């Protein structure tokens, strides 16, 4: 965290100071030896959907473009340019984190007969197939954006019974440091997760 600066990094190695609306962005080379702060996501979700205790669901790892498929925290500098938050990383690759947090959120409701990941041997009724479309800090709007597309697949006949795109934005509060950025992403993800869980319980 560098005061009110948003620190980003990209390859190839070069340094460039760019002034952006509301935030100063320092672009640095990727490959430095500094240790990164590691961040996780919150799973506290309250779902209002009905119980489906006679249903078991499978949550595969979400798909995502390669830019979102790593443990780096994406920052959108413009509509066509992305960077990554310097000295910060997720505790795992983002798709695996989202998968794990969705499983936890479904389990924590206590409203399903079972929730699992591929390979755990559950007799599955439905698969929750998802694609991460956005999981980023937007510097121009000074906000976090999360967007996830979800399909509910009948595991017995391969039919998609419902599909929907979930999105949420959360403002970056306080100083523009790494912790503030992650908190905004966490808040947006919590909103999306709660909506996914509630919608799924109503659909199955």
Automatic annotation (TrEMBL):
Keywords: Signal. Residues 40-197 form the ABC-type transport auxiliary lipoprotein component domain. Gene3D superfamilies: ABC-type transport auxiliary lipoprotein component. InterPro entries: ABC_trans_aux. It comes from the Bacteria. The keyword Transcription does not apply. The keyword Protein transport does not apply. Residues 1-24 form the signal peptide. This is ABC transporter. It comes from Metarhizobium album.
């Amino acid at each position: 965290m560098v005061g009110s600066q948003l620190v980003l990094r990209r390859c190839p190695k070069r340094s460039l100071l760019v002034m952006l609306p509301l935030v100063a962005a320092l672009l640095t080379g990727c490959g430095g030896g500094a240790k990164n702060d590691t961040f996780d996501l919150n799973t506290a979700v309250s779902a209002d959907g009905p119980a489906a205790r006679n249903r078991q669901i499978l949550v595969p790892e979400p798909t995502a473009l390669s830019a979102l498929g790593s443990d780096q925290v994406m920052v959108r500098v413009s509509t066509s340019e992305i960077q990554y938050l310097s000295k910060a990383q997720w505790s795992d690759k983002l798709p695996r984190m989202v998968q794990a947090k969705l499983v936890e959120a479904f389990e924590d409701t206590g409203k399903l007969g079972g929730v699992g990941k591929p390979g755990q041997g559950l007799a599955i009724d439905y698969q929750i197939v998802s694609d991460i479309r956005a999981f980023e800090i937007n510097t121009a709007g000074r906000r976090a954006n999360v967007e996830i597309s979800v399909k509910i697949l009948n595991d017995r006949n391969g039919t998609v019974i419902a599909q929907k795109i979930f999105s949420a934005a959360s403002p970056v509060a306080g100083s523009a440091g790494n912790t503030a950025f992650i908190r905004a992403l966490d808040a947006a993800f919590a909103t999306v997760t709660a909506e996914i869980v509630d919608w799924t319980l109503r659909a199955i």
